[in-house]
């Protein structure tokens, strides 16, 4: 498969599905508050996964028609069930590859892509493919994280090393866990105009218990912890250091702990 990495770094198991839901529900306000599409507009959500963002898109743009696609047939099936189960009727689902989607050029008014480019070996080609599907004057919204933006208190070397394993594993599958900082150059290279990148920082301390649970523990630390076996198997780290690192990440959720991470949200127009 040209477009998909050799192995999607997070995999498709149910625990990852729950993690994506936790991530999405914790970050709804931060990432979605300024995205809503007008009545009657055709919106493509590329790489919808199990529908963690789709549900917010559908809720915030009730009169737009959203087409959500993903390369994983089973993820699309879960997403469809979730959205239909929640009573939304403004989304249609389809299995498809961003690099080879079965839509006519200039079909969509808006495109939304969240946490997908980081997994692709050719993010620029992906943006170019998506641009072909966009009408002139249409918008693209891209949201990505950047693991280089992670810092915390108390600081912990082993935790940084465990995070570095994820960055390295993702790199080995052709992805880029530090892609957030590249959204502006990528959208420029794809010749989009009016590019606006807005950093969205998640700052977590004990005064924000929902973020301690939903973000530091269940989103970020769960993601790193999920790569324990593959990191050790790949010889990137030994068991002791990895486990110390995870302990260090949990330690940041203590009464005096602090955890910071920055997402990048870009919008741009096809000229
Ligand atoms: C981290 S998940 C993000 C899912 C969802 N956007 C979210 O924020 O929860 C990345 C998704 O991109 C999908 N994906 C990877 N390569 C793709 C491709 N070439 N075409 C379509 N989807 C792709 C994966 O199957 C996976 O569901």
What is shown here, in short?
This protein has 271 residues and is an alpha/beta fold. It is built from nine helices and eight strands.
Could you explain the architecture of this structure?
With 271 residues, this protein is of the alpha/beta class. The chain has helices spanning 14-32, 54-60, 73-85, 123-133, 157-172, 183-189, 209-225, 228-233, 239-251; strands spanning 42-46, 65-70, 91-95, 108-114, 134-144, 151-153, 193-205, 258-269. Strands 1, 2, 3, 4, 5, 6, 7 and 8 form an 8-stranded mixed beta sheet that branches. Helix 2 links the parallel strand 1 (42-46) and strand 2. The longest helix has 19 residues, at 14-32. It binds S-adenosylmethionine. The site of S-adenosylmethionine has 22 residues, from helix 1. Residues 3-4, 8, 20, 24, 47-49, 52-53, 70-72, 75, 97-99, 114-116, 119-120 line the site of S-adenosylmethionine.
